[in-house]
Amino acid sequence: MTIGIIQIQITDTIRFLLLPLIYALVMGLILYLAKPVKWIGPKQGKVAEGVMALLISVIISKLAISTGESIDIIFNVGPALIFQILGDLGTLLALPIALLLGFRREVIGMTSSICRETNLSIVIDKYGFKSPEAHGVLAIYVIGSIIGTPFISFLSSISVSLIPLHPYAYAMASGVGSASMNAAALVPLEHMYPSMVSQLEAFAGCSNILSFCLGIYMCIFVSLPLAEKLYAWLSPILGKGKAHIKYDDKEYVPDKSNDDNSDRLSFGKVKRWIFLFFVFSVIVIVGNFIGYRTSFVDTAIGIFIISLVAFIGICLERIFPVHIPSIIYISLIGLFIAIPGVPTSDFINYYVSQIEVTTITTAFLAYVGISIGKDWEDFKKIGWRGIVVALIVISGTYLGSATIANVIMFLTGTI
Q: pLDDT digits over 258-274, tens only?
């Protein structure tokens, strides 16, 4: 946050931003990989991964409250929010390129989605863990975990300069189904359009919720079958390479051994959560002051509200017998308490607006940087071909969603 935002002007009209969140992620990764640093290693990487799972809820909470504050605008552009999900099919643009680069059946897993946790589960369940399709989705999952966040931040800032789409369209496109990528794509927009911050956060948050909720059905019923048909059609023409992705036979799944990831709610777990939220809140308060010179008191109240909503949502997921992801609880609570006219809205919206998404995301991505160090060896095994495909997959879904959202808003007279 002390380094601040560095704007790199390429031409008079083209620029991109280097943001504090990128510095934090890179520094966290360097600390993990640096051999002289003995106090950050696999154990700390595992802890950071568990902390990430908890603290991602803070970002979701902040965006949910912004959604409630701007609920009237959300309703006005409703069709665009729904139809932009079709932009997820933009990942399929990478399929012929992946075939040309030498991949074969791996391309079905690599290009049928943006390959986050839900998509990982779908592909492994359908094809089996040792299948080429599973190896493909795992490759993009690993690459996305390591370079997806900084890349989509760069893509967001450069796209705004190059492609004249409405900021609302880019905000909707940032909801790719990954909370960290969602925030990373949103932050450059906020700095380029400071007068639209609350609206951009609302569209980004709402879009990401829709991606979480509807993305699984899009993958199962639309994108995965399309990827299979495209492969069957194009592989005889383009698929003559031999570049396979190799993985060990051991199953690559998120670690569930940590008690905090289990479904049980215990007093010890609650104490750890409160402690972690407190530490994270202190980091955010200090970072927000350094970056934006906000009042310590106002920032403390704002981060307390955000963390409380996140904490309640996480607890509710484990209290109710019917499994509903905490993101749903957090989003509904945050949205409701911030809707104009609700007694809490003025108080909530004032104090939460004192917290910048940049600050929360920067603090969060420091943990991400440490965590992704664990996957560095897998990342190196994949090679440059996999990285090229991953970047096209991310670009395809982001630009596809932004384009569709912009077209729908134009057709409905919103812009």
A: 445 556 788 888 999 99
| 20's tokens | 């504090």
Predicted confidence (pLDDT) at residue 87 exceeds the cutoff of 70: yes
Q: What is the pTM of this model?
A: 0.84
pLDDT grade, residue 257 (50/70/90)?
very low
